[in-house]
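Margin note from the TA: students keep mixing up input and output lines. Inputs are the sequences; the output is the structure of the whole complex. Example:
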Amino acid sequence: MPMPLISVVIPSYNHARYIGEAIDSVLAQPVELEVLVRDDASTDGSWAVLQGIRDPRVRIWRNESNLGAHENLQRLLADARGDYLAILDSDDRYAPGRLARCLQVLEQGNCDLVGSDIRLIDGEGAPVAAHWWIDAFGELKAVWRETGDWAATLLSGNVFMTTSNFVFTRRLWQRLAPFSTHRYVHDYDFVLRALAGGARLAWIDEALLDYRLHASNTISEKPLAANLEASSLLREHAPALLSAPGDVAMRTACLNGQWARIERYEVEILRALQHEALVRKDEEWGRLVDDRDKWIAERDQWIAERDGWIAERDGWIAERDRRVAEQEARLAQAGAEIAAFRRAPLKAAARIRARAAMGWLRGLRAQWRGLALPGRAQMRRVGGFSGLRRIIERRERRVAALSFDIFDTLLARCIEPPERVVHRVATLLAQRLELPVEQVLAQRQIAERALREEALAAGHDHECHYDEIVERWIAGLLPAADAVRKAALVRFAEDCEFDLERLALRAKPNARLFLAWARGQGIRIIAVSDMYLGKRHLRRLLDELGYRGLIDRIYVSSEYRAGKYSGRLFGHVLEQEGLRPEDVLHVGDNFLSDAMAPCRLGMAGVFLDERHERRRRRRQQTSAALSVLGGVWPGRMMAEVLAERLYLDDRAKRDEVYFQYGLEVLGPIFSTFVHGLIERVRRDRPEKLFFLARDGALFMRMYEEAGALLGETLPPACYAYASRRVVAGAAVAEGLDHAKAVVGLYNPKQHGLESILKTYGLNPGDFADLARRHGFTHIGERLDDWNDARLLAFLDDAEVQQRIRPAGQQARELLRDYFDGLGFFAARRVALVDIGWNATIQRFLEDAFAGEADAAYPQVDGYYFAFMNGMHQGALAHGGIDGLMLDVRRAEPQERAASDFEELFEQGARALHATTIGYRRTADGVEPVLKDDAAPDRQAELRCNPHIEALQQGVMLCFEHYLAAQRLTGFGFDAVRPYALALAERAVVYPTRAEVAAISKLAHSEDFGHDHLLDLSGRDVGWRDFLRPRLLARKLAMLPWRYAPFARFRTPLASAAARALHLLQLKRRAG
Amino acid sequence: MNQRRRARILPSAFRLFLMHLPFRFGRPGGPGFAPGLRASLAWTRRVLWHALFDHERFKYRLVRLRQRLPRR
């Protein structure tokens, strides 16, 4: 008889350690069997163990995800093929022969489900001797043994204990399937349902199953939940079991016993849970308590520290209080002493005051006595050399010798105070030695004072010699330098001082005449000076300043260690000259030295009190003191020097309106500009300067004059015949665009297309047909709208551009060759100098040449008198533009005078030749072609050229003295510029009637776009117009010199009001 | 130096002050050629002081006064 097949199903989950043992215990059973194992997505390597089993009786599966125990079991039982089914949990094992014994019972046909005794084992597989589980199983087993009633037994508890203890028939499974979803008591449920459904149970009293007790037993997960599930089962199945035939009382007792046990378990479990919760809470709170205790300890430490600090602070406070108390005590004591002092010595103080008053009186009395003269003293005061001549002529006693003070008597100073020269020498020396000026100056003062004190100590007057001063000065500055270097520096200092003194001093014209007269009278002329310079210095100075042959002898205090003020020098002079005092008349400007001192010796003293000198000293000392304030005052000081030099220069006395205008009005302004130009050139060092015709002509003369007068090697200057007209012609070699075209429309008197074409050197007649094609009635039609559609169409016309380009290219070729001949393209950095306004020539040059492929275009810096930035707004690519006197980009309204009457400055600076209208090739290269002298505007210019020439002579004379004044004062361009701007404002806005009349006679032609002559006079404005403000405003707007009509008023108030209105108008326009 | 030249090259501080006023009223800007009120006052004070108390002339007047006084 074949053995029936038994299917053993093993649900596997995270029992990698025990699963192999479980399967081995099944495979060792000597029955025909199949083993079905389904791993429920274990995470501990169980699946790997299962894959290692090679026995064909074993079938394995693996769930993709964890399904739970009952679902896994369900699937296994569904796959089982045997007549009998057995379940084995993956951590339990069968005892040998278990299945055979169970099959034997089941085969008898008396039961459907069979269980057996169970042995409890530990994790290692060793039997467990004592455990509550063993006791519980024993008690249930005892009920079965005592009652033999399965209902009573199962109402007492699940004696099968585990699903591993189930071996049952397929028929039973088919009747009861599936297992319930209870997690912990689905086995108990299965058995109860089986019993309730009439199944027959059987038990084998042999321990055929090893139930493993380990840490992860399902039953030990949540005992409370397991008991609650059990009580739920009992409530469900108890009625059916109790109602079945049998001993109800016994069964009820068993049920009650289990209820009581469950309740006890629940209470214990709840208590255990409560206890665990309390322990957890205690642990948690314990940590908090520990933290709290730590914080408290920390706090206590801080408090202790704070108390320490407080104690320390209290100590300090106590110390402070002690010191305050001490100080107060001292103050109180001092106060008491002061009070005592105030009270006590009042009388003493009164005595001191009385003594001081008496001292002052004594001093005054001494002064008074010092001013006493002997009764026979002949002291006179004269206001000039003519007065002196009258004295000599009327004098009863013949004068054998005339003694003169030198400085401020024979020589007039142009700068005050005289120490300014010393300061400049120190500045130049400091620059050379790269030392601070203050240090160099202080060293000189130290040297001079030491020498003077030595002279006093030796019994002389406090006089010292310049040679000694300089030697000691240089030795003090460079103690370690060798003798050669010191000698070179001594020579440098002497040269500087001598040069500056020569610039600072001028001969008084009347003095020279007087000396010549006196010598003619047979009077001996002697010069006597209190001065640190030596005799040879003074002789050279006097000779160079025009006194050569007029002075017989010179006596200097520095040579004799004796001064005029003490009378010693006069004594020496009388002795040396063999003269009696009464035969000598001394003249000088210092009252004490030159009048009192000789009178005391019996000489005649003449106090030279010249009004002009007095006022000069006063003004120059004041402006020198105020020059430190900046603003206009440095320029004012320089102007004082300039004016004084002009006063003493006979060349400045030329009585000609235009000469005087150039000398006094344009001279200082242009001189300041060239001063700035030289400073820029020194800074930027261009290789060559190109002064552009025609307005650069005067500036070039001034620049070259500066190089000669300063003895400085400046970059070479070159005069370039280049008008805007010819350069503009070259700029259209690649065509005429709109931006260039509108340049021709800037003039208020423009004639539209005609002006544009003339601007670029094109013949308007050549374009008349094309102009008509684009809607122009005639070529000279005025264009008020610069974006006129006809103009745009005209410029877009290819035929127009075709006609323009050849002329432009021809002009460019000639211009290139001309500038090449001047060396323009051979340099890397050059400068253009011109009156300016819009830097048009510089821009057109860049347009014409910088864009060419093989162009060697240099960096071009434009230095302009004024830059308005009106016509062209773009930046230059090859250099920059600098408007020195006026640059609108600085937005300084005070600079704008030049732009309010541009023609004045253009006329003042222009060359006498005609404007350049083109170039022509000659055997020597390219030469400029000038406008024909027969042209009407040129004729007018020619008539004015003598005026312009005189005006520029005045400017040149002014510039010569300006340079001297600048060297004497040392002021830079930026310091002087504000004053020059004020002078420009005066010239433009506040002219005199004479100035307006003179300037109005100048013919001003415009060579850019048209050939008009501009009327500068403003004659159109009459007296009546001032009664009609609107008409007046309209007329003024049309005038090039809108302030000229206001010159008829005596006061400047009308001009000032007009200026204010104009500025307001500009502000409104800008806003 | 004649008056015309002084007016052209050396306009007085008052004239400079007057000339800068339109700029102050007309539109904002820096000090430009404004001489400054304090500087103008300092100028005036110094000029007056020198005019009155030029020390050379002052001493001369004292001496002349003393010569004219009856001798003791």
